[in-house]
Structure formats: structure tokens, C-alpha cells
Amino acid sequence: MTKSNEVLIFDTTLRDGEQSPGATMTHDEKLEIAEMLDDMGVDIIEAGFPIASEGDFQAVSEIAKLAKSATICGLSRANYKDIDRCWEAVKHAKSPRIHTFIGTSPLHRAIPNLDMDEMAERIHDTVTHARNLCDNVQWSPMDATRTEWDYLCRVVEIAIKAGATTINIPDTVGYTAPVESADLIRNLIATVPGADDAIFATHCHNDLGMATANSLAAVEGGARQIECTINGLGERAGNTALEEVVMALKVRGDIMPYTTKIDTRKIMNISRRVATVSGFAVQFNKAIVGKNAFAHESGIHQDGMLKNRETFEVMKPEDVGLAGTSLPLGKHSGRAALRAKLNELGFDLADNQLNDVFVRFKDLADRKKEVFDDDLMALVTQNDAED
Ligand code: KIV
Ligand code: ZN
Asked: Is the ipTM, as predicted for this complex, more than 0.90?
């Protein structure tokens, strides 16, 4: 398969994201998020784990029915019962996908107590079974990054021969470093017979804070599907954040010449909605979607931003769906930002008046974390009264 430069975005907010303890969403909330994902251009939505509960089954089935353009995928373990249930849920989609997985590392092989040959046979049989139901089958060797190299090559080859169309390489415990992530995909593609018949995907967890870097490195190595979640929601430290990989590829196309179909202007809206329905607030300094991602408080930064926004911003807030940059006033702010804010509020002060207000503003800012519009108006009015 010739590798185009388009990277498919596989969103698993509704499956891996929802597996975060405490992030459970209701049926209606899942449908709403799925519609938003579909609308923003996500290629594949992993809508749930149909065998896990009746609720998950219903949600995946409904999402499959309503999706307009995204492929709808469900997760299943490596057994026929799971795969059949998954197919029952996703089969309603215009473009359905079955995703089946099994843990292949020594630690994970010990759990079902299968030896290497028995597991290889199980992979062959379950992928074949899934492929008999659905043309679009994804297979994942869970904990791939801690699986012995020879065995990983062997099972990936088996899965491709049995009909898997996407091979996902999960860094299940967020253990890999970027250089390894790129090499792993590159070497698999170069080594495994038939690798060209499949798309390779990367699925990274963020335990060491390297999920975004690892996903982008995997793309450099030849992966053409990134698995991710909105706000990086996911078990433990979460999954790769969709907004981070998508914006990194958009902003740094000069050194990473890959495209996605995501309408980035819809990022902020869905980020807020996922935060609300999952109950997982976004940290203030979170890349792309944090409250402070486009906010500048210090005088030097505010002055720079008022002269040229590129001084301290590498992307436009409008490109992620924000109305604009914000210049909150606090004790680090300077005269330029204060004047700009007062102008915005309809005050055009002479230099000496501004100086007076500025002194009182600093005094207030020392006592308050943020100075709001009402505070400023009070300061100006006080100034007028004293004049
Ligand atoms: O992290 C992981 O290994 C997974 C698999 C089920 C793909 O989420
Ligand atoms: Zn995962």
C-alpha cells in the first residue's frame, strides 16, 4: 500500500477515554459527542466495547446508525463471542469496523495462560472470524512496546495474513520514548511480510508525558493512523490528546508534512463538552485547549501581543475555535495592556490620568489574582471623582 501523507484520526474518547475511573457518560451524552466527532472530521470513532454492558452495546449501535461520514468501530477481546457482539453493534454503520485485541507481551500472555504458539493460533482464528463478518478489521497486540521483537513480528504477520486491514501498535503503559516509537513502526513495516497491505496505527498512553511526541514519531516511522482522545482523556495519565497531534501537524507542517481531515475550529467546543460530560476539567495550562493556552498576563508579553500576535503565539486562537487571545490583567501586566483594556471598555484617558489609574491598578492587583472589568471601571470612576 503506498503511503499517502494523510494521517487518519481514530478517536477513542468514547471507549478508552470513558474507561477513566469516574468519566462515565450517559447514553445521550455519548451520542452527542459522537455527532460532534463525526462533524469535525474524525475518520474513525471507537464508540465503545459492546460486550462490556448492555449500555455500551446500545450506544455503539445507535452511534453506528447516526454516523454520517466516520467509520464506526467497536472493541472486542480475542474470542468469538466478543467479536460477534461487536459486529451486531457496528453492522448498522455505513462504514463499520471490528477492533479485536490481545495482550502479547510476556506479562499479558501470562493472564490467559497461553503459550506463544497457542496465542498465535488464537490471533489467527479470531482475526479470520472478524474478517468473515466485516471487511474492515483492526487488530492490536496490547502492550506491543513490551513484546519481544521476534514474537511481535510473527503475530503482526499472522494478523495481516488472516485479514486485518489495520495493525495498531499500542504503547499500553506509556513506556516508549519517541525515538523507539518511530523505529518500532519503521522496522515492523520493513520486516513483516505483507506489511504493505495494512495501515499501521499508533496508540499511546501518557504515563511519562510522551504520548503526543510518541504518536508524532510513529507517524515519522510510517504510521498513518493516530489513536487519540479529546483532552487526552483516558486511563491513568490518559491517551494522546487529539487536539495536540492535530494542531502539531497543522502548525509544523514544515517539518511534519502530514495532513488530517479535522476541522480544527471545532476543537474548543468539543473539548469543553467532553470536559463537562466526563466531569474531567481541563487543566489551565493544557496545550491547545487550556484556559491559559492563549492568555498572556505579563507586561512584556502583553505589549508584544498588542504589537504583533506572533511574538508569543504559534497558532491563531481562531484556528481552534476561540474568539481571540485574552490579555487578563494582573500584577504582572503593564500600561499598554491597561490602556488597551480601558479603550475596549470605552475609556480614552490622557497620559496623566492613565498613570493615576495604573498606580491604583497595581495596588489592587497585588491583592487580587485577576483584575476584572468591573474593578477597572471602579478605578476609573474613582479617578474621575478625585479629579
Ligand atoms: O492501550 C491499549 O493497549 C488499548 C488496546 C485495547 C488497544 O487500549
Ligand atoms: Zn489504550
From this structure: yes
| Nearest atom in ligand 1 to 173's CA | 1
pTM: 0.94
For residue 37, the surrounding DSSP H or E stretch is helix 27-40
pLDDT tens for residues 13-38?
999 999 999 999 999 999 999 999 99
Helix ranges, 162-206 (H):
178-191
Contacts by 108-113, CB closer than 8 A, 24 or more apart: 108/142, 108/143
What SS3 state is found at 328? Answer: coil
Task: Tell me which residue has its CA closest to atom 1 in ligand 1.
Answer: 172
- Rounded to whole angstroms, the Cα distance separating 387 from 383 reads 6
**Residue 63 and residue 34 in contact, taking contact as beta carbons nearer than 8 Å:** yes
Most distant CA atoms of the chain, gap in Å: 89
Extended strands (E) in the chain = 8-11, 44-48, 71-77, 96-103, 137-142, 166-171, 199-204, 225-228
Rg (Cα) of the chain, in Å, rounded?
25
203 known member of a binding site: yes
303 has binding-site annotation: no
- Compute the residue count for the chain: 387
**Ligand 1, atom 5, residue with closest C-alpha:** 142
